[in-house]
Write a structure and sequence with these properties.
Number of helices: 3
Order of helices and strands: HHH
Distance between the termini: 50 Å
Number of strands: 0
Shape: elongated
Amino acid sequence: KVRDGRSFTATVYAPRGSAINGIDWADVDAKFRTLAPYAGFNAERIEQCMATIRRFGEGMALGIDVLRVVA
């Protein structure tokens, strides 16, 4: 509600990132880069993690790479 008493509403049936719309890699990248420093990751570690995340879609052997980056 605004000061003059009017109110506005909107309905979003499929928000950004929902299953029907999918998620853009640029959004994943931006969110990870924003939050990773709070976990104590430095720039080099962030780049290592992002390289691993990008390979998810390429059918990599996930277990070994993830353990190498996180360890």
